Amino acid sequence: MTPEQLDQDLAEETTAAAEDAAGENDIHDEDNRLRSEYVRKVRDALRDEDHDAVYELVEPLHPADIADLFELTDEDERLKLAGAIRDLMSVEVIAELNDYVRELLVEELPPDIVADIAEQLETDDAVAMIEDLDAEDQQAILAELDPEDRAAIESALAYPEESAGRLMSREFVAVPEHLTVGDLIDFLRESRDLPTEFWEVFIVDPRHHPIGTCALSWVLRAPRHIQLADVMKRDQTLIPVTMDQEEAALRFMKYALISAAVVDESGRLVGQITADDVAHVIQEEAGEDVMLLSGAGEGDINEPIGEAYSARVRWLVANLGTALLASFIISLFGGAIEQLVALAVLMPIVASIGGNAGTQTMAVSVRAIAMNQLTETNTWRIVWREIRVAMLNGATVAALVGLATAVVFSPMLGLVIAAATIINVFTAGLAGVLVPVMFDRLDQDPAVASSVFVTMITDSMGFFAFLGLAVASGLVG
Known about the structure:
This protein is mostly helical. The chain folds into three domains: 23-160, Alpha Horseshoe (MgtE N-terminal fold); 174-294, CBS-domain (Roll); 305-472, Tetracycline Repressor, domain 2 (Orthogonal Bundle). It contains 23 helices and six strands. Strands 1-2-3 form a three-stranded mixed β-sheet. The protein has a three-stranded mixed β-sheet with strand order 4-5-6. Strand 1, helix 13 and strand 2 form a beta-alpha-beta unit.
C-alpha cells in the first residue's frame, strides 16, 4: 500500500468515525441518557408495528444503550421491541439488562434460544440470567445446553445466592510453575480455548492449588528463558467459593485487586473474580443498603407492583406501631398539654431533632459495618466517639432552640426544651450505633430494621424527656 493510499484510508476512517459520533450525539443527551424524542420515535414505531423503522432506529446503539432502551419502554412494549430488533439482541445486550427486564424477556423466549444465549455468555452472566427463573424453566433451559456448559451452570447454581461461587467466572488461565516465560507465551498464542479478557495467569501446583500469579505485563517484559517460579507473585488473595459476594468486593477494594482466584473447600482453583464483576456488586450492595434503610425494598423501578407493595407495607405497619407508642407517651401527659399549649407546639421539635441525629449516626454505623470498619474489636471506641459527637451536636442545637424558646415563651420553658434536646440527641447517638451493632451480632442485616427501631427510640424519648421535664420543673401542675 502506497503512502497516498494509506492517507486516503485513514481519512475515510476518520470521516466514518465522525459520522458515527454525530449520529450518537443525535441519540444521546449530554448525560448519555437516550433522548426523550428518540425513545418516543421508537415507541411510536412499535405501536404502528413498523419493525423495519424500529430496527433502523436501534441499530446504531451500543448494547448498553439498547438495554437502557428496554427500561425506558412500557412492560407491554418490551417483547415487541425484542421481536423487532431480532439479531441486535446480542449477548452483550442480555448481560446489560436490568434483572427484572431480563427475567421478563427470558421467560417469554423458547428454552432453546435462551440456551443459545447462555452458551455465549460468561458463566457468571449465564447464571445471573437463569438463577431467578422457576425451577421448571431452569430445567428446560439446562436440558438444551451442551453437557460442559450445563455442568458449569449447575455447579454455580449449587452455591448459595450472592456467594463467590455464583459470581465467579470459570474461564481462566492456569499453568504449572515449571514452565518458562517462553513456554507460557507460546501456550497463550497457540491455545484457542482462552477467556476473552484476562489480566493474570494463575500458577498452580500438581494438586491444582494456586501458588501464585503472573501479571501479563510481567510476562511481556521478562526474557523467555526465565522460569515462572522466578517472576510470579506468591502473595495472593484467595476467595473461598462460599464467601459472600459483598465480603469478596471488600477484599478487592482493600487490596486493590484486578482479579482473584476462587478456591473450593479443598483449596483447588475453580474460578476467578475480576474487577468488573466486583464493580457491579459494589453498585448493587450500596443501592440495596440505601433502599433497606428507607424500607423501600429493592427500590428498582422495574420491580413488579406486588413485590414492591409487599416490601414496603411491612415497614409502614411497623412505623405505625412505633407511632402508636409515641402517641401513648403523649397521652400520659395530656393534662399537662392542656394547661400549657406551648408544649404541643414545641414537642415535635425535640423528636424531630433526635430523629435526624439518630438517622445520621445510624447511616454512618451501617456503612461502617458493611465496610468492616466497625467490628467487635472497636465497637466501644466507636460508641464513645458517637457519644461525644452527639453531645457536641446536642449542646449546639439545644442552645439555639432554648434561646429562641426563652425569647418567645419563657426562660424556664427554654431550659426545659434545651435539656430535653440534649437528652434526646444523646439517646439518638447511642441508638444509632447500638441498634445496628445489635442486629449485626444477631446475624441480621442492620440496614433492614435499624431505622424503625431508632425512630421509635428517638420519638419516644423526645416526647418523654420534654413533657417529663416540663412537669418536673413545675411549669404545669
